[in-house]
Design goal:
The structure is a single chain. By secondary structure, the protein is α+β, with helices and mostly antiparallel strands. It folds into two domains: about 180 residues, f41 fragment of flagellin, N-terminal domain; about 110 residues, Alpha-Beta Plaits (2-Layer Sandwich). It has seven helices and twelve strands. α1 runs antiparallel to α7, α2 runs antiparallel to α3 and α2 runs antiparallel to α6. The longest helix has about 55 residues. The protein starts with 7 loop residues before the first helix and ends with a helix.
């Protein structure tokens, strides 16, 4: 019904014009932002997923940086440990020179002077090997390995234990056969200690020592931790382990980790994604070499045995550093892969398809133009109706 009071056609045209204009504006917003989700109502679930992925990607990028820092710490520490290893090799060379009968006590004094300087330099390197102001190898940093290591200890005969004069025999300590004999009517604990130490030292073994601890025969390893061991066995004779109050078998040291050992480096999107970075203490005292003296042939012989143990400890420490460094390398590669995949997943959800959206914009633009034309025609209809009453 033709009316002039209410322009229904114009209202309809304007409604479609507003709708098409909104579609055009939405397409323009997506094209301008590059995002398929410019407001939560576009895709509520997709927005939640994309936001979570974006958060994970940002965290993983920091985790990648953390892993890189961890590798840098290990490389710095390994550099210091390599220098300590070189010094230990030089100290072993000096010990071998001093132990030789071809040098006199005068030359040994010169050797001892260099030996002492090298001992001090080991501590200097342990302190001066720093990362971000922290000394890495002197046990004072947040990366310090605070594992509690104990030595292998064997206790034997008490002070009143004796053996008869007509007994003798051979025992084995770490595959070193030691002959025990006595010309007296009894053998005291001190005599047992002397015979055992002489037998060990004659074979160049100074890392295991016998002692009289409050009247008890005690064997102690200088080495500590799970690798420290003392193996006892009977060989021949009636003066056997049982006579000495000792038991055949292997006694080992222990390693007990404490809560403060090392630092946990976050290498993932969760607080549980960590790699423990712990560095050993490589000072002269920690390596068990602080008391060595090569100014005598006997002291030099002891140094040769103890330095072998110290070199093994530094080598094991460097191996642990290398293993942890390798783990950080692989985790870094995995983080990079995860970031790439998550970026792709987020793009599939949140990034706008330019070609598709451009087509949508073109269609909306045409509809807007059509709606404008229709609204123009609708606005002219009442005026055309006036011609009926003229």
């Amino acid at each position: 019904m033709p009316v002039i009071s209410t322009n229904t056609a114009a209202n309809t045209a304007v409604r479609y014009l507003n709708s098409n204009a909104a579609d055009q504006s939405e397409s323009l917003a997506k094209l301008a932002s590059g995002s398929n989700i410019t407001k939560a109502s576009d895709d509520a679930a997709g927005l939640a997923i994309a936001t979570k992925i974006s958060s994970d990607v940002a965290t993983l990028e920091q985790a990648s940086t953390n892993a890189s820092h961890g590798i840098s710490v290990l490389q710095t520490a390994d550099g210091g440990a390599a220098n300590v290893s070189d010094i230990l090799e030089r100290m072993k060379t000096l010990s071998s020179q001093s132990a030789s009968g071809t040098v006199t006590d005068t030359e040994r004094a010169y050797i001892q002077a260099e030996f002492e300087q090298l001992l001090e330099e080991i501590d200097g390197i342990a302190e001066s090997t720093r990362y971000n102001g922290q000394s890495l190898l002197d046990g004072s940093s947040d990366f310090s390995d605070d594992t509690i290591d104990t030595a292998a200890i064997v206790t034997g005969a008490s002070a009143d234990a004796t053996v008869t004069a007509d007994t003798s025999g051979t025992i084995s300590i770490n595959d070193i056969e030691i002959e025990l004999t006595t010309d007296d009517t009894t053998m005291t604990v001190d005599e047992m200690v002397t015979l055992i130490n002489d037998g060990l030292q004659n074979e160049g073994e100074y890392t295991i020592t016998a002692s009289n601890e409050s009247g008890t025969l005690t064997l102690t390893s200088l080495d500590t931790g799970d690798d420290a061991s003392i193996t006892l066995a009977d060989v021949t004779g009636t003066l056997n382990l049982a006579t000495l109050g000792l038991t055949a078998g292997t006694t080992t040291g222990t390693s007990t980790e404490v809560d403060t050992t090392g630092a946990e480096v976050v290498v993932g999107s969760s607080s549980a994604d960590t790699i423990n970075l712990s560095l050993p203490e490589l000072t002269a005292e920690a390596l068990g070499i602080s008391g060595l003296d090569v100014s005598t042939a006997d002291g030099a012989a002891e140094a040769l045995s103890v330095l072998d143990m110290a070199i093994d400890e530094v080598s094991n420490a460097r191996a642990e550093m290398g293993a942890t460094m390798s783990r950080f390398d692989f985790r870094s590669a995995q983080i990079d892969t995860s970031i790439e995949n998550l970026d792709a997943a987020q793009s599939a959800i949140a990034d706008v398809d330019i070609a598709k959206e451009q087509a949508t914009l073109s269609a909306a633009s045409v509809k807007v133009q059509a709606a404008v034309a229709a609204a123009t025609q609708a606005n002219e209809m009442p005026e055309n109706l006036l011609s009926l009453i003229r």
